Automatic annotation (TrEMBL):
UniProt protein name: HDOD domain-containing protein
Gene3D superfamilies: Hypothetical protein af1432 (1.10.3210.10)
Alphabetical list of InterPro entries matching this protein: HD/PDEase_dom (IPR003607), HDIG_dom (IPR006675), HDOD (IPR013976), RNase_Y/CdgJ (IPR052340)
Organism: Eiseniibacteriota bacterium
Domain HDOD as annotated: residue spans: 19-211
Pfam families for the chain: HDOD
NCBIfam families associated with the record: HDIG
Superkingdom, natural source: Bacteria
PANTHER family per UniProt: PTHR33525, RIBONUCLEASE Y
Length: 284
């Protein structure tokens, strides 16, 4: 006979089908960003199909973090100012089911900031270690905690208690499985499958809490970036600091990002993470 936890797990997985599909505009923007023959004008046309995204791109281009005094009023000019990669990032970040604002809830805001910081660190790890596709690493890092966002949305009071308990990584997984019959990594993989995103992305998201020794490729880089951007993060992006690995058996250790290597990486990457989050946070 199914237990109450089994029933809750089944309902959670059945509910994944009710999650809205991955936005068509975002899929189009991803495709254009990966096409070397696409232009800023192509990207502007794709973004212009969505009024909310158009507003977000214009606001980001005019944000203080961009350091420009001359206001941008046209979408093509905004795309040129930000760059194709940054526009792609803005559009995809907008797909996260969590808010960048404080009002909807501290946990969701923290999850948003952690996800964006992890994505940026994951891309930087790919570049730093000459990985095959740092932009793919960015997407994997961005979506690695989408299952946590969904569980928090479904069970905010339970998740608030988890958050206040300051659980370890293994503690989170155990607490989620005990409460819901499923953990956020498995659920995140199911959500990416619902969005029809790459199986490689699904795998990276669903596996990022396995033992680092069992991981490789994008999954390992996501796990390492996750270690560096531990929650809770500070409320202000300017105060973000990357967390050094506690042992060589960590995901960072598996990648050789320990000691002076980690310090060098953190010194280069932290200012970039802070600047990018400020740009993302400037949009409503």
């Amino acid at each position: 006979m199914p237990t109450a936890t089994d029933v809750r797990r089944s309902k959670i997985l059945e509910g994944v089908d009710a999650i809205p599909p991955f936005p068509e505009v975002a899929s189009r923007v991803l495709s254009l960003a990966q096409d070397p023959d696409s232009s800023a004008a192509d990207l502007a046309r794709a973004v212009s199909r969505d009024a909310s995204l158009t507003s977000s791109v214009l606001r980001a281009a005019n944000s203080a973090a961009m350091g420009s005094r001359d206001p941008v009023t046209g979408l093509p000019e905004a795309v040129v100012r930000l760059g194709i990669r940054s526009v792609r990032d803005l559009v995809v970040v907008d797909c996260l089911p969590a808010s960048r604002r404080q009002a909807p809830g501290m946990v969701q805001r923290q999850l948003w900031m952690h996800s964006v910081a992890t994505a940026l660190c994951c891309r930087a790890i790919g570049v730093f270690l000459h990985g095959p596709d740092p932009e793919w690493d960015f997407l994997a890092g961005l979506f690695h905690d989408v299952g946590r966002m969904h569980l928090n949305d479904l069970f905010p009071q339970v998740y608030q208690k988890f958050w206040e308990s300051e659980l370890s990584d293994s503690g989170w997984i155990q607490a989620e499985r005990a409460a819901f019959g499923i953990d956020h990594a498995e659920l995140g993989g199911a959500i990416l499958a619902r969005w029809d995103l790459s199986k490689d992305l699904q795998q990276a998201v669903s596996q990022h809490h396995l033992s680092p020794a069992e991981l490789s490729g994008t999954s390992l880089r996501v796990a390492a970036a996750d270690e560096m951007t531990k929650t809770p993060l500070p409320d202000s992006a300017e105060e973000i600091q990357l967390t050094a690995p506690e042992s060589v058996e960590s995901a960072c250790g598996e990648l050789g990002l320990v000691g002076e290597s980690f310090d060098d990486f953190a010194a280069r990457v932290t200012p970039l993470v802070v600047r990018e989050i400020q740009i993302f946070a400037s949009i409503p």
